[in-house]
Amino acid sequence: MLRQPIVATLGNVDSGKTSILDSIRNTKVASREAGGITQHVGASEIPMEVIDQVCGEFLRKNKIALSIPGLLFIDTPGHAVFANLRRRGGSIADIAILVVDVSKGIEAQTIEAIQIMRDHKTPFIIALNKIDMLTGWISQPGKSITESLTIQRNEVIERLDERIYAIIGELYSQGFSAERFDRVTDFTKQLLIIPVSAKSREGLQELLAYISGLAQKYLETTLRLDVKGEGKASILEVREEQGLGMTFDAILYEGSLKQGDDIVFASADGWLKSKVKAMFKPKPLDEMRDPREKFTPVEQVTAASGVKVSCEGAGSALPGGQLFVCRTEQATQAAITAIDAELKEVIFESSKDGVLLFADALGSLEAITKLLSTSGIAVRSARVGKPARKDVMEADSVRQKSRFLGTILCFNVSPDDDVSRQAQEAGVKIIEEKVIYNLTEGYTRWVQEEKAAEKREAFSSLKLPAKITVLSGCCFRVSKPCIVGVEVLAGTLKAGAILLDGDGNKVGEVKGMQEDNQAVAQASKGKKLAVSIDGAVFGRQVCEEKILYAEVPREDSQLLETKYRNALSQEDLDLLNKMKSIRATHNAQAKN
């Protein structure tokens, strides 16, 4: 028998992946997701009778006979930072739909999705979404795209073809040959581009017909099901169900799973072995992560299926982890080895200073850890679950050594009130987000804001290092006070600064500064301005092209290097060291 093909939807964030599935299922999952963005892998079954209802006329007209029982759709997150989740989706998918926004074309995350499918050798077709947004498009709700195209004006067809050929060109640069679906001459060598609209449901007939037909025709060997084979599944989410207690949702992508089977799955404390007490399947067209109706109890499920499992220890299962059916001791040992390797990769603790990361699923943890690493942000520990009081103490110890790394990042989990209070009292920042890429952006933004605040505080009260040069031909007054034009080469020059020469000798005090005839209190690197220097005489202490330094008192220097170090650039720190060297040399010469 043939099993349901597993179909992954991939593509850029906001391209409309979930909306397309909503149109097929007549659901509203997309509108209920945080930020309108899919955060986790979800699954829903589209039975054959629904496929026949949507595109039966198209199937019959094109003499396509389907023998598959339906389709199991995996809805995957679309942003670049979700690469690991999508790889998990891509790795168990038989075929994929790459959703592309017609107005945006191929984007960075689209290319990443293509690379994922190339890596896993997953065949795919392209759903060119949002055609109803094309200027002049006349929508035909529910119609096939073939019918809709016949009533569009020539300039609209040309506009659509321009977008399609631009995408064909970009795909060619990625090593793929593509064409509009009705112009394809070889389905084994050319990618199909199917214009669709999730909003008006145009093109869904062709989309479902081609994805079903191609999967059946070219993946028949892959789809042959060994009903007696030991099942493998991916855990999606752990949740409590009334009357059942803790359960978890999973996608069975290989073999079968029966009531009473021994299973091994990942938990926060390592692998866990249990026995299946009961199983439930969502109603057809329902979404595993957001069902509208109650689940149906079943005694056995075969791939490919979404299934809810009740077993001892279900509440400890890690979302995003693997599940293995173990009917022999050999299978049990193989499962334990695989899960141990997975957990070692994703969940970790180290002694190095870094942020503490908490998330609701292994996939999220994996994706965020990778993103933080790419962004150069060190991670001290990564765990599934919410932070506890001991984690605040750990973050505080990191904060004492590295102010900005002593931070707790939480994705889709919230600390208890007592933990939040403890963090606030300790000065430990907790950043919570429900959209993954907002978490790293939120952390980066907070660091920048804190550094800016520190810089304002430091620059308002302390003497700052500066290196300036006297400009040629810009002596406006020789003495009492000496007024010359200067350029700031490094650091920040402030009014009131004591100027020294390269040997540490006092030149004079900056009494005032003007830029474009306007008085200013300070000037940063690159600024050219006039300064009045009390105590200096042009031609003696000050001359053209001479390099001068703003003196930083020892107390201010210590504060800048410790409390306000994060507010300074490396150039500022180098300048402070230069000033120390000049001061040390001057003092040594004075003693001699």
Give a brief description:
The protein has 592 residues and is α+β, with helices and mostly antiparallel strands. It has 15 helices and 29 strands.
Number of helical segments?
15
Biggest beta sheet summary: 7 strands, mixed
Q: How far is the N terminus from the C terminus?
A: 98 Å
| Mean pLDDT, all residues | 85
What is the annotated CATH architecture of the largest domain? 3-Layer(aba) Sandwich
Q: Major sheet: order of its strands? A: 2-3-1-4-5-7-6
**Proportion of residues in extended strands:** 25-35%
Number of domains: 4
Structural class: alpha+beta
Task: Fill in the CATH topology of the largest domain.
Answer: Rossmann fold
CA radius of gyration: 32 Å
Q: What would you give as the CATH superfamily of the largest domain?
A: P-loop containing nucleotide triphosphate hydrolases
How many beta-strand runs? 29
Taking pLDDT < 50 over at least 5 consecutive residues as the criterion, the unreliable ranges are 28-41, 78-90
Percent of residues in helices: 25-40%
Question: How would you describe what is shown here?
Answer:
By secondary structure, the chain is α+β, with helices and mostly antiparallel strands. The protein has four domains: 6-223, Rossmann fold; 232-343, Translation factors (Elongation Factor Tu (Ef-tu), domain 3, Beta Barrel); 347-458, Translation initiation factor IF- 2, domain 3 (Rossmann fold, 3-Layer(aba) Sandwich); 466-591, Elongation Factor Tu (Ef-tu), domain 3, CATH 2.40.30.10. It has 15 helices and 29 strands. The strands form five sheets. Strands 2-3-1-4-5-7-6 form a seven-stranded mixed β-sheet, with helices on both faces. Strands 8-9-15-12-11-16 form a six-stranded antiparallel β-barrel. It has a six-stranded antiparallel β-barrel with strand order 22-23-28-25-24-29. Helix 3 (83-91) runs parallel beside helix 4, helix 3 crosses helix 10 (362-374) and helix 11 (389-401) runs parallel beside helix 12 (417-426). It is elongated, with a radius of gyration of 32 Å. The model is unreliable at 28-41 and 78-90 (pLDDT under 50).
